[in-house]
Design brief:
single chain; alpha+beta; Enolase-like, domain 1; three-stranded antiparallel β-sheet; two-stranded antiparallel ribbon; 7 helices; disordered C terminus
Length: 247
Amino acid sequence: MAAPSVYAAINAIAAELAQHGIAKSHINEADDYKYRSIDDLLDRLAPLLAKHRLCVLPRVMDREVIERREEADRLLFHVSLKLAFSLTSVDDGSSHIVEAYGEALDPSDKGTAKAMSAAYKSTMIQTFCIPLAGSEDPDQTSPKVTSRTHVPEPVQGWEQWARDIEDIVALCESESAIELLQERNRQLLTALSRERNDLYQQIGASVIARREALRNRAAPPMKRKRATRLVASSKTRRTRAPEKADA
C-alpha cells in the first residue's frame, strides 16, 4: 500500500533542501548571533512546495497579548500565538498537522505578523530538517562554552553609573563594605566589563586605591607597637653588654 502523498512530498522537499541547506547569513547586532531570515526560507521553500504540490495552511488556535514597558517607558506589545500548520498534498488531499508556537515584541501593530513568521520559520526548519549551508563537522572543533548575561544598561547610562560606584567606593569604611558593594552589583559589573571595559578598569583602580588607603590608615598603630618592642629590645642588649665585657 502506497504512503499518503503528503509524506512523499515532505520527504522529497527535505531531500532537496538537504543538499545545500539554508545558511545563517544575517547577524543580530543587539544579541550577537547569526540567523536565517523568513525571506531566506521562503525564497528556497516556495519553489519546492509548488514543485512537489504541497500546501502549507496556517491556522491560529490561540492568541494572547500583554502590554509591557521598557526602561525608557516605551510601550511594547508581547504577542503569543499557538498555530496549527496543515501540510496538505494536492495529489490526494492527504494532510498532516504540525502545531507550533510563536512570540514577538512590537511597539505598534506588527506583533501578530512577527509571531506568525517566527512560528512558520521554526516549523518549516524542523519539519523539513533544513541544515545550514557549509556547516563544519561538529567534531572538528571543541568550542569553549561561555555564559552571557543579558543585563540592560542602567537608566543613567554606564558612565554615570560607574562614577556613582566610584563615589560609593570612596565612602566605604572597611574592605568588607567594598566586598558587599561588589557582590550587590555583580551582574552589572560583569555587564560593564563586556560593554565598557574602560569604565570597568576605572572602578577596579578606585577599589584598589581605597583598599590601600584603608590599610594604611590602620597601619600606624601597628608600627608604633613594633617600634616600642624594638626600643625595649635595644635597651636589654645595652644592659647586658657590660656583663659580657666583665666576663
